[in-house]
Records
---
Amino acid sequence: MGEPSVFSQIISGDIPAEITYEDDQCVVIEDRAPQAPTHLLIIPRKPLTNLSDAQSEDKSLLGHLIWVAAELGRKLGLDGYRLVINNGRSAGQTVFHLHVHLLAQKKMPEQGLM
């Protein structure tokens, strides 16, 4: 395994960051290059490289990350938000430690994905 990711270094305290929420499974920080007025990163303490690396034993952790996003949405009074997980370099992932982007307070383009 290579160097620890910037997120692993934040979690370990080696790099200072303003943590807006944390529990035993994850930490939440503001994105340093926000794409919306509210742009939070929900980062699991477990250093999974990306979503494709998650195993069966990670199901509860993955659910917890989504629950934390919903809880933050409620606490921040967000009337809508988007959750994004970039999985792999070709999908735009730049930090190879799984994380969920919570984006809000910006009109997002409608996408015909369904």
Note: The CA atoms of residues 3 and 9 lie 10 Å apart.
---
Amino acid sequence: MEARNRVGGQPDGKANTKGVKRVTKVNNRIKREIEEAIPKMRQGSVELSRHLINVREILTWSNATPIRSHTDIGYLCCYCSDYYPEPADLKQHTLENHEGINDSSFTKRRDLNAFYVKVDITGLRCRLCDAELDTIESLVSHLKDVHKKRLFTDIKNHLISFKFEDDTLKCFICLSKFSRFKGLLEHMNIHCRNFVCNMCDAGFVNRKRLVVHQEKHKTGIFQCEVCSEEFSTLPKKKLHIKSIHKPVKFRNKCGYCNETFKDYHQKLKHLTVVHQVEQHAYKCEACDRVYRTRKSFRVHIQRDHLLQRPHHCSECDKTFYSGSALKCHMLKHTGLREFQCDVCLKSYGRKSTLRDHMRIHADDRRFKCEHCGQAFVQKCSWRGHMRAKHGVEV
């Protein structure tokens, strides 16, 4: 009877009662943690529950912190409505005010196909032994092997890791640089290849992103329901609807003052001038030119330094970097003039040329001489005046 009344090798009595309470308390805590880790999940989603348990253990026993998203106003907290321009400030806020996964934004995602968590692993350390670690994978192995924590290693990793070690926004794996967090997030799919496209070998962190990507490979006739314009792929149709038919109030909206803009670059200028938001820039090491976006920087390198000219004219030996440049060049061979002035009926090969011509009828003299005040409709006329009258090359 005495052996049956012992808990943990202690004799019965007060020690026995204390031991039973301790075991019961531990069991209740484990039960409560599991219930909190799987809030309102679909019945039978065992794998999703394992993902959430893994995330809970990682955030509990390390200084890794989740990121909800990034907008004009900064990095958003996963647990509350606070936001911070710098990721380091969000990390400090999260470590001081939140823990685990309770009430976090990612626990509300009940679909495994769309589930993933963005985590800041800058200066990653184990809270149990203060060991320094490089990646989430090494942290999981460490917690499981050294500290015997309950983690599932037989499932795909749906965590996307980021390190913010200096002012440059870059991938900590391949060191690629980015001007926006959105670009870096898209890039991380290269390294998180849980699901791979069988058409182009592109990798993605979850199945939903793969499905969205695969729409690009489906060609056909996709008609706009609003204006009946047709497109060769579904993404092109969606982009058309978003940019043409979506109400302006929902397009390119400033996160600070809700002002809207016709295009993204106007919004960037507004953020810089009005709200003093510093924009990341790419500086060319060959010629010191600076570009605001990764795309414009890449175009500059390929066109101006690598001299890539993949588009060949079928009539002469000239080559061009872009298809649009080749199309403009072909007008010299075809003589096509499809843009006609409604006033004098002159025709032009380019829409931009017609637009410049229309300033003659509007008497739009925007090019003004700073020396004598004479104004001109066309830039070429202004340049000729500056050279002939004032001896200045412009």
Note: Confidence is low (pLDDT under 50) at residues 1-16, 37-44.
---
Amino acid sequence: MMRRTALAVAGLVLTLTACSSGQQTNENRSGQTGFVSGNGRVSTFAAADRKPAPAFGGETLDGKQWNFADHKGKVVVLNVWGSWCPPCRKEAPDLIAASKELGPDVQFIGLNTRDLDKAPAKKFVQEFGVTFPSLFDPSGKQLLGFRGQISPTSIPSTLVIDKDGKVASRVIGEVTTQTLVGMVKDAS
């Protein structure tokens, strides 16, 4: 009886793990519960195959309002991160460098998720000198709007949204400066 119960539980765990992300075969589970650390592979979408990014926006970590609709006609780079995420810490300098290299014609926006308090997220921003705004999304509600484009458990993730508001490319996992600059240039 106990053996059957243990086998049933193991089967359920395997099923739930396999369903946690459409990217699961290309990603590795990290030690942190509740997120998947990707392999950094870039997915690029042909213009005809691009899907619209959802309407998103809200309050930033510094208390200002930011809305995607206000940046129509610009390439937007969305980076999903959490202060508790080791790969997010590793990629932060590359995001900052890419933002500086690409300049004001490209709008960078962070999406801070699952930090239940702004303090750790603000400390992360200060520690790394992040110059672009980040939306505060403690419940993951904003992130859920991207379901089908990125998994809510794939943190970090970076999307490049073209001037028409469609997702041109994505990276599940850490992104490098060179890769991100190339993604943006391909989307322009």
Note: Residues 35 and 112 are 14 Å apart (CA to CA).
